[in-house]
Design brief:
The complex is a heterodimer. Chain A is mainly beta. In chain A, 8% of the residues lie in helices and 32% in strands. The termini of chain A are far apart.
Chain lengths: 293, 205
């Protein structure tokens, strides 16, 4: 395949790889696929290196046309996939002929689907990565109708498997493991209990930078300002609203609100599949709960 | 020193002061411990991003503590000195003078008279927070942010001064402007004001 022509990008589609490393000290974050595992899987299915660039499709709606024949795979959010209007399998190797139209519909479960193509999306890298960082404004522009995305030369063989058994993203309450800190001591002693006590709901004020959540308020006890400090993906930052924001791939490099707890790295990919209105339950390690909890 | 875990994704090291942050950053920058994928210096902390699959957090913490002991509080060696010419005609120069009790000329003299050090970057790519200047210049942020601050604006807030790398919203007090490009993706490295870099401002003719 030489290229993909974008017919319709859907609500929001971007080029993503596994991110831009080594520039945090200059104020540039990692960015990259919000659900890294899903992009890795798509790349493995089409025989790419795991960090090849693909397309992150937020809430479906992407339709592309193949320029030249090749292979593709759709992973992540689970929903209808069609080639030339005929249903096609997700999490499977799809053979596309020149001119074939591939469409990713609105997902039934999860939020972000990934389209991997054999050879990878070959737009020019910026600071060593093809990721679109919506916070820093670095990397390729979000996809627009009529855009042509070059596809790289394939390396290596196609894998012998042609589909992957995967767990479909849940539409029920999403359970995420968290570890208290680094600033849990800025909060009331029972704030960690509150965090784990009842589900939080994902609000519509959510994007690649972070997800605003609503649920049990987290009371701060230490007054004053926290000098800005480095932030990690998965951090639960608590602004004066007392409602946590879960930081995702394009989070700011530094922040000035205290972080009560951090979602373990392996669970942040699943967090990135939570849809507005979906509920999240945070599971704390047993020893972190206070004695009266 | 305190080392605060951020689940399995990072270690946040709290230090006594900015000099300690920059010393630890300089000591780890060129030879980070295995599994450390990024370093973020800030005013009182250094964050080490970890790859959970490769990093041994206990080993990284031992290395941090050993490094901090051997480095003491010295600044990074061989940090370059950058000179930035500024036209001091910022919209907030009068407010800055009123807040500090200095005349506009004395504000300019204080800004150009001290050597600043880039403490850390944040807010946007290449936006350096410069510390260590004249303490008389400590001013609060504006009560209302501007929706549009032009690229090259030189500004003050808190103990810091900074140069806006590109047009953006901003709440800092505007002191003047410079033609110097502080962020250029075609330059390697793209950022001029990197942590540890020393800076002098001079009045442009």
């Amino acid at each position: 395949m030489k290229a993909l022509d974008v017919i319709t990008p859907g609500p929001f589609s971007t080029v993503q790889d596994l991110g831009r490393f080594g520039w945090a000290a200059l104020g540039v974050g990692v960015s990259g696929a919000a659900d890294r595992d899903a992009l890795r899987l798509g790349n493995r299915l089409v025989g790419n290196a795991e960090d090849a660039a693909g397309i992150e499709v937020t809430f479906g709606g992407l339709e592309v046309r193949a320029v030249g024949a090749g292979y593709a795979a759709v992973t992540g959010a689970y929903g209808p996939v069609a080639v030339n209007g005929r249903p096609a399998a997700a999490n499977a190797v799809l053979r596309l002929a020149d001119g074939d139209r591939l469409r990713i519909g609105t997902p039934d479960a999860g939020l972000r689907a990934y389209l991997a193509v054999r050879g990878g999306i070959d737009v020019a890298p910026v600071l060593g990565s093809r990721a679109t960082d919506t916070m820093a404004g670095i990397g390729p522009d979000p996809l627009t109708p009529g855009a042509r995305l070059p596809v790289g030369d394939p390396h290596g063989d196609l894998p012998s498997v042609d589909h992957a058994p995967v767990r479909t993203p849940t539409v029920e309450v999403l359970i995420l493991r968290v570890v208290p800190g680094p600033r849990a001591d800025w909060f009331a002693p029972d704030a960690l209990d509150a965090l784990g006590s009842a589900p939080y709901e994902v609000t519509t004020d959510s994007d690649r930078i972070g997800m605003r959540l609503t649920g049990p308020p987290l009371e701060r006890t230490r007054p004053g300002e926290l000098p800005s400090e480095g932030m990690v993906r998965g951090a639960l930052q608590v602004p004066p609203s007392r409602m946590p924001t879960l930081l995702l791939a394009d989070h700011p490099v530094t922040g000035g609100y205290p972080v009560i707890a951090v979602v373990v790295a392996a669970d942040v990919d699943r967090a990135a599949q939570a849809r507005p209105g979906q509920r999240i339950r945070f599971r704390l390690p047993r020893m972190a709960r206070s004695a009266h909890g | 020193m305190r080392v605060l875990p951020c689940a399995d994704a990072g270690l946040l090291v709290e230090l006594d002061d900015l000099a300690g942050v920059l010393a630890l950053y300089a000591a780890l920058r060129d030879d980070p411990p295995p599994g450390v994928t990024g370093l973020v210096p800030a005013a009182r902390t250094l964050l080490l991003h970890l790859d959970p699959a490769r990093a041994d957090a206990d080993a990284v913490e031992r290395r941090i503590r050993a490094t901090a002991v051997s480095e003491g509080g010295d600044g990074p060696d061989g940090a370059p000195l950058v000179t930035i010419p500024v036209v001091y005609d910022g919209a907030d120069l009068g407010d800055i003078a009123a807040h500090t009790g200095l005349s506009a000329a004395e504000v300019v003299a204080a800004h150009t008279g001290a050597e600043w050090t880039v403490a850390f970057c944040g807010f946007s790519p290449g936006f350096g927070y410069l510390a260590g200047g004249d303490p008389r210049l400590h001013v609060p942020r504006r009560t209302e942010s501007r929706t549009r601050v032009p690229a090259g604006a030189v500004a003050l807030a808190g103990e810091f001064t900074g140069v806006y790398p590109r047009e953006s919203p901003g709440g800092w007090q505007l002191l003047g402007r410079t033609e110097v490009l502080t962020w250029d993706l075609d330059r390697d490295p793209p950022g001029l004001l990197r942590p540890g870099v020393r800076v002098r401002f001079e009045e442009a003719g």
